[in-house]
Specification:
The complex is a heterodimer of chains A (117) and B (116). Chain A is an all-beta fold and 117 residues long. Chain A is 0% helix and 51% strand. Chain A contains no helices and 11 strands. The termini of chain A are far apart. Chain B has no helices and 11 strands. Classes of the chains: A mainly beta (117), B mainly beta (116).
């Protein structure tokens, strides 16, 4: 299947700093990528839909000024958590949709564990 | 409201035993149903995808069933191994309409623990 990578896999930062997470589709071009957030023992919650070359679409309750998304190429989307606070600590997972596959399937990255001190 | 309910919430079985996880959904219209395995601290990995016309699909020791009339699916794991310990997530897809969420509704998952 298609491969999606995320970097870094784990990051610890101080409160007030900004953190950038990268999501790459390695063997296919993805016009659409998605960013999810997952708390312990909870399911994935969609934060935003990232469209190549246009603005991201944010889900209700997600602050667009806090979670900046850039989808500058067909293989890369970035999520920047600005002025991070301890409540932003979570597991962030991206996915990329393969538009040429038979099921229009999303392939998930391995996730990034963010800890804000 | 589209919903996906999974049961049980958690399950502990002995290595070598079989188990079946359940998924009931109210998503309509329906495009496909997916089962994912998510290891702790990792992203979900696809096990099976089934469309409306598919009743059964296997992937090694994993066999998924789908009854689109009753809107129920199950995931059967045969001869469980320690490496099967993970969360299993049922995801139902509505036809892609170009909007956000890609038409996916996620279940909360079943947390499976295999004991030696």
């Amino acid at each position: 299947g298609a491969v999606v990578s995320q970097h870094p896999s784990r990051v610890i930062c101080k409160s007030g700093t900004s953190v950038k997470i990268e999501c790459r589709s390695l063997d296919f071009q993805a016009t659409t990528m998605f960013w999810y957030r997952q708390f312990p023992k909870q399911s994935l919650m969609l934060m935003a839909t990232s469209n190549e070359g246009s603005k991201a679409t944010y889900e209700q309750g997600v602050e667009k000024d806090k979670f900046l998304i850039n989808h500058a190429s067909l293989t890369l989307s970035t999520l920047t958590v600005t002025s991070a606070h301890p409540e932003d600590s979570s597991f962030y997972i991206c996915s990329a949709r393969d538009p040429w596959g038979p099921y229009n399937e999303q392939f998930f990255g391995p996730g990034t564990r963010l800890t804000v001190l | 409201k589209n919903q996906v309910e999974q049961s049980p919430q958690s399950l502990i079985i002995l290595e070598g035993k079989n188990c079946t996880l359940q998924c009931n959904y109210t998503v309509s219209p329906f495009s496909n149903l997916r089962w994912y395995k998510q290891d702790t601290g990792r992203g979900p990995v696809s096990l099976t995808i089934m469309t409306f016309s598919e009743n059964t699909k296997s992937n090694g020791r994993y066999t998924a069933t789908l009854d689109a009339d009753t809107k129920q699916s199950s995931l059967h794991i045969t001869a469980s191994q320690l490496s099967d310990s993970a969360s299993y997530i049922c995801v139902v897809s509505a036809p892609y309409s170009g909007g956000g969420a890609d038409g996916l509704t996620f279940g909360k998952g079943t947390h499976l623990i295999i004991q030696p």
